[in-house]
Amino acid sequence: MVEQKKYALFLATLDSEFVKKTYGGYHNVFVETFGDEGEHWDSFRVVEGEFPEEKDLEKYDGFVISGSSHDSFENDPWILKLCDIVKKLDEMKKKVLGICFGHQIIARVRGGTVGRARKGPELKLADITIVKDAITPGSYFGNEIPDSIAIIKLHQDEVLVLPETAKVLAYSDKYEVEMYTIEDHFFCLQGHPEYNRDILFEIVDRVLRLGYITQEIADTAKATLEKRGADRKLLEKICKNFLKGRVPAN
């Protein structure tokens, strides 16, 4: 009998009412995107101080760190605890997929610099340019390496300086680091492969109501998804191949 694969999701965000009502929470959104039948997924609400015991880290085959409305460069107790856990996962060479906030936390832990985005925040569907020379055909990207990928973006911070050992896999006109990898066990994206149109639109409406963005920014964000969508299937395939070690990362 094949041993059941186990994965842990570190949720650095709370469930919105919309996500709870529509999907039953972000746990389900992530598992639907990155999970496969027969796997076991545990969620830890790290933003509320919920973490696995250190002795239990070994039992997981991989980890996902979600996005967050918190700044990755702050020193809140839970953020520092998350950094400590990531250091341990690094030592163990466990596979970790970092998304948005998670992408920045991994850079911070490995000695990079994170901070406010130099060219301002982004809230839209955006194209990121793939650094094809940095990707070996047959890696978790597969044999067909695209020139660019459309991904939903929602962030106001960025990786300003990459850790020395990191390799940039994608950039955009606004941000130098959209995707990077460290050795074979860290794979990080600034965008959100798990977001769909409905999730983004609801967030846009909510932050507009709260006065965080203008109507013009809200309209622009929605307009980017009018005629096309994110390359979700491709992003899902790349992330799953990495996380499951289906194809060796070169």
Automatic annotation (TrEMBL):
Pathway: Secondary metabolite biosynthesis
GO cellular component, one term: cytosol
CDD domains the record matches: GATase1_1
Location relative to the cell: Cytoplasm, Cytosol
Keywords: Cytoplasm, Hydrolase, Protease
GO biological process assignments: glucosinolate metabolic process; proteolysis
Domain of life of the organism encoding this protein: Eukaryota
Annotated GO MF terms: peptidase activity
PROSITE patterns linked to this entry: GATASE_TYPE_1
Glutamine amidotransferase domain: residues covered: 50-195
Annotated PANTHER family: GLUTAMINE AMIDOTRANSFERASE DOMAIN-CONTAINING PROTEIN, GLUTAMINE AMIDOTRANSFERASE YLR126C-RELATED
Protein family membership: Belongs to the peptidase C26 family.
The protein's name: Gamma-glutamyl peptidase 1
Organism: Raphanus sativus (Radish)
Lineage: Eukaryota, Viridiplantae, Streptophyta, Embryophyta, Tracheophyta
